[in-house]
Amino acid sequence: MAHPDPHLTPTDTDLTRSLIDYAVDLHKKAGASDILLYADVFGDPEDLRELIRSFKGINFVLSTRSEQAASVAREAVREIVAVPDIRLTRMGQIKVAVLVGLSTGVFERGNRLVCLSGMAESGTLDTIVVMEVGKEFEMFAPAGEGEIRDSVNTEVFNQVLKLAVELGNEGREGKPVGTVFVIGSPDVLAPYTRQMVLNPFRGYAADERRIFDRSVQETIKEFSLIDGAFIVSSGGLIETAGTYLNPPSSASDLPRGLGARHHAAAGLTACTPSTAVTVSESTGTVTVFQNGRIFTEIEAPRRIGTTTRKSEAFFADTLAEQAPAGPEDLPTS
């Protein structure tokens, strides 16, 4: 096995190894299908690969934002789940990885997973969760009428999810953003929508409206400041922005505190074969709706307590505003 990261203390290394040992034991005793491991905890992908190789006969699935980590460790694991390149809470990391894994067929409902997570680049795994996909009511809705991948294109859904998580974490121009993405057939959705403003995507060729294009993604972020929803075709074309959603009925069983945006998204997915992704302006929480119900929620990380160097490093690429320096950050003589 490669030498541990010199920046880690023996305690960090021992904790990570002990947690993986425990996860492997749980994997066997609980009859889990996989160990889901958040790879971005580790600074050196080579160390991660050698660590995984030391556990024979165990199915590891890696969740990572890094193409380098994916390429280095690919041969040592069953599957790689690529997640948005954005800071997430530990539970957010797990939720996004499982959601993307469900949409791509890496995981199936009924799979039991042992999930390992920690703060990105910290070098230390510190969180373990055992869950059964489809029965973990605190993270995902119970099994319903099919999977997300049955109703929308997997790559399109994953790109919409990535954009939504980025908007929820970063906002736009220093301001929080609230918006909705609806993925489905424009013709089927048309009876329940109308334009609040002139459609900024009207008249553009298909090649200029693809959600996978970086310039289109930046345009979407700019237009996210406009009230209304984005309609995205199943093939990944941005059809409209600034669209008012008017489903025949609103969802009645949503949690209290959710506004018109969430009720409209739920109502539209109840009456059409579509999937909706909302971004809360007040909290940055991303919510996925299908079949008129919440499928899952992904909370944005928040600052709590005194600012430290570690917390500043964590939030550096997600929040424009810097909190006042805490005692730990004052210069020393």
* Overall mean pLDDT: 82
Shape: elongated
CATH superfamily of the largest domain: DNA integrity scanning protein, DisA, N-terminal domain
Number of E-state strands = 12
**Total of domains:** 2
**Main beta sheet:** 7 strands, mixed
Supply the number of helical segments: 10
Helix-residue proportion:
25-40%
Q: Return the CATH class of the largest domain.
A: Alpha Beta
Portion of residues in beta strands equals 15-25%
Radius of gyration computed on alpha carbons: 21 Å
Low-confidence stretches: 317-333
Order of helices and strands: HEHEHEHEEHHEHEHEEHEEEH
CATH topology of the largest domain: YojJ-like (1
Question: Which terms would index this structure?
Answer:
333 residues, 2 domains, seven-stranded mixed beta sheet, alpha/beta, 10 helices, YojJ-like (1, elongated
SSE topology:
Elements (H helix, E strand, L loop, with lengths): L9 H20 L4 E5 L6 H9 L6 E5 L2 H7 L5 E4 L7 H15 L7 E6 L9 E6 L15 H4 L2 H17 L8 E5 L2 H4 L3 E3 L18 H10 L5 E4 L5 E8 L14 H12 L3 E5 L6 E5 L2 E6 L10 H7 L18
Parallel strand pairs: 1-2, 1-4, 2-3, 6-8
Antiparallel strand pairs: 4-5, 6-10, 7-9, 8-9, 10-11, 11-12
Helix pairs in contact: 2-3
Describe this structure in words.
A 7-stranded mixed sheet has the order 7-9-8-6-10-11-12, with helices on both faces. It has a 5-stranded mixed sheet with strand order 3-2-1-4-5, sandwiched between helices. It has helices at 10-29, 45-53, 67-73, 90-104, 148-151, 154-170, 186-189, 214-223, 260-271, 309-315; strands spanning 34-38, 60-64, 79-82, 112-117, 127-132, 179-183, 193-195, 229-232, 238-245, 275-279, 286-290, 293-298. It folds into 2 domains: 10-132, Pyruvate kinase, C-terminal domain (Pyruvate Kinase, Chain: A, domain 1), CATH 3.40.1380; 148-298, YojJ-like (1. The chain contains 10 helices and 12 strands. The radius of gyration is 21 Å and the shape is elongated. A hairpin with a 2-residue loop joins strand 11 and strand 12 (293-298). With 333 residues, the protein is an alpha/beta fold. Helices cover 32% and strands 19% of the residues. Helix 2 (45-53) packs parallel to helix 3 (67-73).
